[in-house]
Amino acid sequence: MESNILVVENLWKFYGREVILKNINFTVKRGETKVIIGPSGAGKSTLLRCINLLVRPDRGRIILDGDVITERRDVHNIRSQIGFVFQHFNLFNHLTAIDNVLLGLIKVKKLPREEAMRRAKEALLSVGITEELWRKYPAQLSGGQQQRVAIARAIAMDPKIILFDEPTSALDPELIWEVLNVMEKLSRNGMTMIVVTHELGFAIKVAHEVMFMDGGTIIERGPPNQILLNPKGERIKRFMDRMWYLYSLNRSSKVA
Amino acid sequence: MNNVMSWIKDIQFFTYVNIILSSITTTFILSIASFILATIVALLLSFIEVFGPRPLVKAVEWYVKIVRGIPLILALFIFYYGLPRFGFPLPPLYSAIIGITLVDSAYQEQLFKGAIEGVSEKQIEAAYAIGLTKWKAFRHVILPQAFRIAIPGWINEFSIVLKDSSIAYAIGVTEIFTQAVHVAQVIADYLKPLLLVSLIYLCICYPLSYISNRFHRRLIEMGMIGS
Amino acid sequence: MLENILYILYGYGSAIALGLKYTVIITVTSYSIGIALGLFIALLRVYGSRLPRALLTVFVEIIRGTPMMVQLFFVYYALPELGILLDPVTASIIAIAINSAVYQSEYIRASISAIPYSQFESALSIGLTKFKIVWIVILPQAIRVAIPALVNEAIYLFKYSSIAYFVTAPELMYIGKSIGSKTFLYMEVYIILAFIYIIISILLTELAKIIERRHTVPSFIGSKV
């Protein structure tokens, strides 16, 4: 079994004449959690959308578990193997929490109802959504609960990797914790994840590698302590200074 | 003597009420038939406009533009007086059904198209992200939401058709309004027959508008449309 | 057929133009009265005290629940029984204006409630009175939100003014019918009328788009992104 589950090679994306992604290269190992940080407009979100082919890259290859997915035409089959968690949750508004999880299992994975039900319940419980919430509609749930249902929807599909697009930035501060907690647990249990986030604490504690993106390209990468605490380049230094200011922490303070 | 006179008048009054009420079937046939036919045509057209190839999309756009420019009375006159010249004489009721169907299909097309496009981009992206195919995303996410979004407007549209069916008076369809005017002419009193038909329309339209509002509020609560 | 159409245009062109003039007069007048009255009703229903609010709600529901035809016949045929005699054009304008006022009040009311309460709050916080807040903060925003609906109403009235035909107001449809009964070329006349109605409706629709674009404020509710 190859240890690299995802390989991104020489990836480019243009919108008209504007370059959104410029020669992106990286690999993700099985069980790895990779955090991407960077200012808005850096192309982080587009990169994630390219990986599960919601956006078609213009050049380059993406290899998922030995399969060159950029050359595949049955994109929906690929997408069913890649989980995606959105900033604004994007739960299906017309379906209850459990039906949101069931939809993919029944319509994409074609599981029999009982089996799908079992897996949906398991997924919901694993993110701390208990039975009394299963029959609620998204609008009746808190932001944190909605995002955890969205994570359950992703993990129930038994994906090879889950992509998180700023999963906590639409949440009230006190709800952020419950979502990060679920993500940390997922990572510890060996799920492969790419997380675009500004949560430095999460990055330091959970990430195996952090990549700093700016201007559509990866500027610097390395272990979280190095990137977040001792960055080298000028741009990243300035960015990290601001981030730590917002995080109310001094860069020199020791982080366990 | 006076007492007897008022008795006679009352009997007359109830006869007239009966005449007007008996024509309510025609109003229902006319409005329900045209409404359902218009819905069928409009669904077809809206699917074409949202998913169809470019030339067909343009054709639907022009159909809507043109039909929406024609006053209903004119459409009724054209079908009632025009068709016989091409060898298709139709009884007034059928002409009216065709005329209302034509005009209302353009309005309902806009309603359905708006509902399909009203399903948010985010919902569609989420559907693709879990691996649904285009067709399945349409079938399980877009359509069920568009259907719910369209309901309040669709119910209102029926009230509009019901009220507009009174224009069939122009070509002599004996629905409630026509019958009320006939009665008014006979008894030389417009006030009472008009109040009576108003009451009939109100008894149907008000509950419909109430139900439509309930649906609308529910959609806002569910986050499927903005408040 | 084309020959007949030309014949009608040649022989009755000025009559048709006169009919169009009346159609425009009825539409414009009833629309203007409608918007003024509609604004009044909307404001009273949102900010008024309980009694006028209740009365207006009943009034609005009655008008919305009955056909414009019934309202027109009421004004023209039933009011004389109560001693109010009106000529066809005035009766049409009054009936259409009242009907339109109710619908326009609903559009305005809906757009007032679409303005977030935070707007009202922040206006209060800088010390504006309630009246001024409504007039200079809420209404300008609400009217912008309502523009598409209000413009649609104008196009709708333009077509619907044709029901004035039933009370013999000499507008397009009435003129058309009388030309038809003189020449027996009904179909040709109706084609000409349809053409006029369609062209003007399309022009108004295009004009509406221009107005909407011009009054768009970036990222404002109702503005296209």
Please outline what is shown here.
The complex is a heterotrimer of chains A (256), B (227) and C (225). With 227 residues, chain B is mainly α. Chain B contains 9 helices and no strands.
Using only C-alpha atoms, the radius of gyration of chain B works out to 22 Å
Helix content estimate of chain B: over 70%
CATH topology of chain B, which one?
Answer: MetI-like fold
Strand order of the largest sheet of chain A: 6-7-8-3-9-10
DSSP strand tally of chain A:
10
Helix-and-strand structural type of chain A: alpha/beta
- What is the CATH architecture descriptor of the largest domain in chain A? 3-Layer(aba) Sandwich
CATH-wise, what's the superfamily of the largest domain in chain A?
P-loop containing nucleotide triphosphate hydrolases
Structure classification of chain B: mainly alpha
β-strand percent of chain A reads: 15-25%
List its salient traits.
heterotrimer, B: 227 residues, mainly alpha, MetI-like fold, C: 225 residues, 8 helices, 80% helix, flat
Protein architecture, described:
The complex is a heterotrimer of chains A (256), B (227) and C (225). With 256 residues, chain A is an alpha/beta fold. In chain A, 37% of the residues lie in helices and 24% in strands. In chain A, α3 (97-107) packs across α4, α4 (113-126) crosses α5 (143-156) and α5 runs parallel beside α6. Residues 250-256 of chain A have low confidence and may be disordered. Chain B has 227 residues and is mostly helical. Chain C is mostly helical. Chain C has one domain: Orthogonal Bundle (MetI-like fold), CATH 1.10.3720. Chain C has helices at residues 2-47, 50-65, 68-78, 88-114, 117-125, 130-160, 172-183, 186-214. Chain C is flat. Chains in contact: A-B, B-C. Chains B and C meet through α3, α4, α7, α8 and α9 of B and α2, α3, α7 and α8 of C.
Question: What order do the helices and strands come in, and which of them pair?
Answer:
The complex is a heterotrimer of chains A (256), B (227) and C (225).
Chain A: E1 4-15, E2 18-29, E3 33-37, H1 44-51, E4 59-64, E5 67-68, H2 75-79, E6 82-85, H3 97-107, H4 113-126, H5 143-156, E7 161-165, H6 173-188, E8 193-196, H7 200-206, E9 209-214, E10 217-222, H8 224-229, H9 234-246
Parallel strand pairs in A: 3-8, 3-9, 6-7, 7-8
Antiparallel strand pairs in A: 1-2, 1-4, 4-5, 9-10
Chain B: H1 2-22, H2 24-51, H3 54-68, H4 72-82, H5 92-118, H6 121-129, H7 134-164, H8 176-187, H9 191-221
Helix pairs in contact in B: 1-8, 2-3, 2-5, 2-7, 3-5, 4-5, 5-7, 6-7, 7-9, 8-9
Chain C: H1 2-47, H2 50-65, H3 68-78, H4 88-114, H5 117-125, H6 130-160, H7 172-183, H8 186-214
